[in-house]
Amino acid sequence: MQEGRRGRRSVPTAIAVTSSGLVLPPHDRQTPPAVVQPQKTLEASLFGMHALIEQHGYVIVLHSTSDETVVARRLHTVRSVLESDRIALLGVDLPPLGLALLAQQLRQLSVCDFSPGVLASSVRLLAHYIYAGALLGSVTKLDRVPVTLTSHAKSWLPGAQFAVLANPRPQLVRLNVADQEPLAGPEFGTRLLVAQGPQPPSDWVTATLAPAWQVQGSLPVPLPEGSTRWWGTGKLVEFAAGLSDVSVLYQLVSSVRRETCHWCGLELIGDRCGFCAAPLREPESPPVRALPRGAT
Length: 296
What we know:
The chain is an alpha/beta fold. It is about 30% helix and about 20% strand. The strands form 3 sheets. Strands 7-6-5-10-8-9 form a 6-stranded mixed sheet, with helices on both faces. The protein has a 4-stranded parallel sheet with strand order 2-1-3-4, with helices on both faces. Helix 1 crosses helix 2 (about 70-80). About 40% of the residues are buried.
């Protein structure tokens, strides 16, 4: 159990992302790489996805809900042309670095003894335990997290800095003020990923946030190419904290009751199938039998 029951499946379910910037370095030699889909042309995407299905059996594609329409359309076109029910297209409402961390966790779990259906339906559960945010030098173009008019106005002041949490609960804090409130952090052990933009505002994330959150280590990683657009500024340091121990991830997912999808027959956890998106069927109520006259 210490290793998360790895190695039980000879060919793990393939995990795909929509850009190379969402592929984080593997934790160890057992963690498989992520595949980038879609590719440059529709033909290449079709051949690539077909090869993944032939090799792995099932493919889980993670993409941001803020992805350009062309990206989402291409993915759905590929699945439709291949007429495959073995491709799960899962849109996730996380900033880029948080999405990359989620993909890495799924890659770790893909070599455990989870079925493809459980892996796909675990995405929403895993995302809930990811703390994703950024240190920003401006919030004037931030539209992913609620920003007050006062914050917009103060964003124009020289040297203004804002700590923003996008997941699991949105929060915006202006730094270096007298009544500064702390940025809500996880109440469990995490590892912190830190990606600096071309114009980082300061070292606040590593010098202040990491000790306050009591992280079990921090790792610098390249800034995903979509981060500047997502956060609305190049003056940023993006961060994401989450579980990194595969045995803990395994226990988290395996602790949830498994069901069988009434539509496609795959296993699932939660209330929706990750592959066909069918909701979990409500248990049927037993028929009400009429009492005979005079009965109480």
